[in-house]
Amino acid sequence: MLRSYYQKELLEAGCDEAGRGCLAGPVFAAAVILPLHFEHPLLNDSKQVMEKDRYELRAFIEANALAFAVASVTNKEIDRINILKASIRAMHLALKKLSLSPELILVDGNRFTSYKKIPHHCIIKGDAIFNSIAAASILAKTYRDDHMLQLHQKYPHYGWDQNKGYGTAFHREAILKHGQCRHHRISFKLKQRFDEQGQLFSLSEK
């Protein structure tokens, strides 16, 4: 059972990102402000939710949240400033787009940069603890998946309809065969990430 809130006095926004460990595509982030007693039996960390259920949850979250917003940072920006800074920037952009101003920010993970001097708490695996962070993880994941499905139409040989840009064996083999495209993260130096057997190192999959 997820917790409905961290505290009751301040208006909380949960934040999470999707796509941090990918080889291609943007990183997406969402910020969500929920009513105190929001609940849905399927709500959880997006990695623990079936794909079809994520979209059911997205519709429910968007219909019942007090405020929500989704933002992204391109692979070019990721290459320029690094993936950690890009992930935090995407969260800041999502927070900026909220129709309500939060008084406390709950962030999944252990790294964040203060946003407008609003107090924040970094919570490791927070998307499996608090409703608002779990809801943000659902929105970030589904919006990013939709974006990668669109890119797949132009670049079908990378299998982004299945791997969404993560470093699966199929995706790594496609990079070896076809090279990188303009949506790959060049700073990850994919072509140089080989071990002694000549296989691309795997990055985390989500």
Report on the architecture of this protein:
This protein has a domain at 12-151: Nucleotidyltransferase, domain 5 (2-Layer Sandwich). 36% of the residues lie in helices and 15% in strands. The protein is built from 6 helices and 5 strands; from the N terminus they run E-E-H-E-H-H-E-E-H-H-H. A hairpin with an 8-residue loop joins strand 1 (12-18) and strand 2 (27-33). The longest helix is centred in the last third of the chain and has 24 residues, at 131-154.
Mean pLDDT: 92
Helical proportion, percent range: 25-40%
- SS element count, helices: 6
Total number of beta strands: 5
**Coarse shape:** globular
CATH superfamily of the domain at 12-151: Ribonuclease H-like superfamily/Ribonuclease H
Percent of residues in beta strands:
5-15%
Distance between the termini: 22 Å
- The top-level CATH class of the domain at 12-151 is Alpha Beta
CATH fold node name of the domain at 12-151: Nucleotidyltransferase, domain 5
What order do the SSEs take from the amino end to the carboxyl end, as H and E? EEHEHHEEHHH
Largest sheet: 5 strands, mixed
Round the Cα radius of gyration to an integer and report it: 17 Å
Just name the CATH architecture of the domain at 12-151: 2-Layer Sandwich
Structural class: alpha/beta
In order across it, which strands form the biggest sheet?
3-2-1-4-5
User: Unreliable runs, pLDDT <50, ≥5 residues?
Assistant: 194-198, 200-206
